């Protein structure tokens, strides 16, 4: 009797232990699938936990999830609980791949799932007359991604807009879209317009009623003539297709069909600007513009400064052409202009103004004219060239030294025109005076020569002390060395500023040569992941690593996309700063 009771108690304890055991496992819908199929992965647990971390789904694209579900049930007085995180995956290539372990914290302990091996084969055809095939057919017919182009036949540098719309039939639903491929807009200057919220609208697709949402908007300026192609925009999403049935609340049951859709290639036929009537000073401006040259002062004293602003305002490709240069008399000292842009971009293209502001410093008194300059552009409304001229300005320098050289020259040129005295400008008398000579001994020069070496001794000691302090300044010396190194590697790129292809080739070569020198890298080893890994191992911070990587990408892309001198100057400045910062941090 005692033995029987012992076995009953032991059985109950084992049963309780089995019920309290934590289970956390990964389940997949199939271990072998075609390249065009979707995979469902469930991470299930029998107790609630926190801090769930999914694996890195390398070689797959997440097209749905994570979806969380929880359930509790009772059977024969026993409670069972299940919590599941669900993902829908799309394979990106054929082969044998591993889905890593997921983790979660339950009762203060961390649990992990076992990795799962998935085999991906060639695309497979769905079974005919199956429910899955029928749902796939409905999904294909009821959802469309369309690229709407405002003008398929623009002029060179004329703005066009591309709007990508997702059309969905009224009886169909869509969720969890992921951008799989984004158009790169090669041969166009492009700017994506921000979409703050996705708003459902009503519209027609091929004459039928549809709902649609705008997913992407971009403004493009073609930089080449001829037939230019727009890359496709590709989405992975889940389409909800109605089934023949309803739930207990009367709602239609839906089948979820993973789908990949694309807005097909579009061709833009870009017309060249006419050669007839093209002004000699035309620099590529296309649109509708105003042009003005102004100064902030009309009267000032010598050695004071004034600002002259050359400004173009209006609507058109404002960031894609250069402003005309200001010309002034040689007696006025002119500094390099400061470029400014106040441009906004919307569906109509660029609007606003750009300007170059020159600082001018007169040296002598007098009246100085700033000649009129011209600005030419192609007017899209009239399809003809227009030229605008600025007003001639006069700068009055009230006080200051006289420019005797210019006065004598102007007098010499004016006097031969006097009929009665054709050679009167030639001087035949002089006003030379004898000079007095003083003895060198005990003169000011004598005493200065005697005392100068004595004064030079404390000066030399002071200079030496400053040099020692400078040599001891390790941080400062490293900073100065880094700045010199940046200038050294970027000198060739600086000479090519304004010429896009040579500039970016030189900039890319400078970045590579810098890495060769600092990291002992060969050209064949210069992959972006390798560069990031080595810079991180040499204690360079993430901000500078990202900046360096973006510069390399910019060099690769900019050779095939339009770039202005302002953009090249910006990339040059970023490169100089980044090399300098990396050289200070690298160990």
From TrEMBL:
PANTHER family, sorted: BATD, PROTEIN BATD-RELATED
Keywords associated with the record: Membrane, Signal, Transmembrane, Transmembrane helix
Lineage, top ranks: Bacteria, Pseudomonadati, Bacteroidota, Flavobacteriia, Flavobacteriales
Residue stretches spanning the membrane: 446-463
Record bears the keyword Transmembrane: yes
Protein known as: BatD family protein
Residues making up the signal peptide according to the UniProt record: 1-20
One Pfam family from the record: BatD
């Amino acid at each position: 009797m005692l033995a029987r009771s012992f076995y009953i108690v032991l059985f109950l304890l084992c049963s309780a232990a089995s019920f309290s055991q934590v289970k956390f496992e990964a389940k997949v819908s199939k271990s072998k699938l075609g390249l065009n199929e979707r995979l469902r992965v469930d991470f299930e647990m029998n107790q609630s936990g926190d801090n769930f971390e999914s694996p890195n789904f390398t070689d797959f694209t997440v097209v749905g999830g994570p979806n969380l579900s929880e359930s509790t049930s009772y059977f024969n007085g026993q409670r069972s609980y299940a919590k599941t995180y669900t993902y829908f995956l799309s394979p990106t290539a054929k082969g044998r791949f591993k889905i890593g372990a997921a983790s979660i914290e339950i009762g203060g302990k961390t649990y992990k799932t076992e990795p799962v091996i998935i085999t991906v084969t060639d695309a497979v055809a769905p079974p005919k007359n199956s429910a899955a095939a029928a749902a796939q057919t409905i999904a294909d017919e009821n959802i469309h991604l369309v690229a709407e182009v405002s003008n398929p036949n623009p002029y060179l540098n004329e703005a066009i807009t591309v709007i990508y719309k997702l059309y969905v039939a009224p009886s169909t639903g869509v969720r969890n879209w992921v951008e799989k491929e984004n158009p790169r807009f090669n041969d166009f200057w492009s700017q994506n317009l921000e979409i703050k919220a996705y708003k459902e609208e009503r519209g027609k697709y091929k004459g039928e009623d549809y709902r649609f949402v705008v997913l992407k908007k971009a403004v493009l300026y073609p930089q080449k003539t001829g037939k230019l192609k727009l890359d496709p925009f590709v989405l992975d999403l889940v389409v909800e297709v109605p089934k023949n049935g309803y739930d207990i609340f009367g709602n239609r049951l839906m089948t979820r069909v993973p789908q990949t859709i694309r807005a097909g290639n579009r061709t833009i036929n870009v017309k060249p600007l006419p050669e007839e009537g093209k002004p000699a000073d035309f620099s590529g401006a296309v649109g509708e513009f105003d042009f003005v040259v102004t100064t902030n002062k009309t009267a000032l004293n010598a050695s004071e400064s004034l600002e002259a602003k050359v400004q173009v305002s209006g609507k058109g490709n404002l960031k894609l052409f250069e402003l005309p240069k200001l010309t002034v008399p040689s007696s006025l000292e002119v500094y390099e202009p400061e470029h400014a842009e106040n441009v906004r971009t919307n569906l109509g293209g660029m609007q606003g103004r750009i300007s170059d502001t020159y600082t001018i410093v007169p040296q002598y008194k007098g009246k100085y004219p700033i000649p009129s300059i011209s600005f030419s552009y192609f007017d899209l409304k009239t399809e003809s060239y227009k030229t605008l001229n600025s007003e001639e300005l006069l700068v009055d320098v009230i006080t200051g030294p006289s420019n005797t050289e210019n006065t004598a020259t102007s007098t010499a040129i004016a006097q031969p025109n006097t009929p009665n005295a054709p050679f009167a400008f030639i001087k035949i008398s002089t006003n030379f005076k004898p000079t007095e000579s003083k003895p060198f001994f005990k003169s000011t020069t004598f005493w200065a020569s005697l005392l100068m070496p004595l004064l030079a001794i404390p000066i030399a000691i002071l200079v030496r002390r400053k040099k020692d302090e400078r040599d001891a300044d390790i941080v400062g010396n490293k900073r100065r060395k880094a700045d010199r190194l940046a200038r050294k590697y970027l000198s060739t790129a600086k000479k090519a500023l304004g010429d896009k292809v040579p500039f970016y080739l030189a900039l890319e070569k400078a970045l590579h040569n810098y890495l060769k020198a600092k990291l002992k890298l060969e050209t064949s080893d210069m992959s972006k992941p390798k560069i990031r890994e080595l810079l991180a191992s040499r204690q360079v911070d993430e901000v500078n690593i990202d900046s360096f990587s973006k510069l390399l990408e910019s060099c690769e892309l900019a050779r095939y996309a339009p770039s202005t001198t302002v953009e090249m100057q910006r990339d040059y400045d970023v490169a100089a700063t980044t090399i300098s910062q990396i050289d200070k941090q690298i160990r």
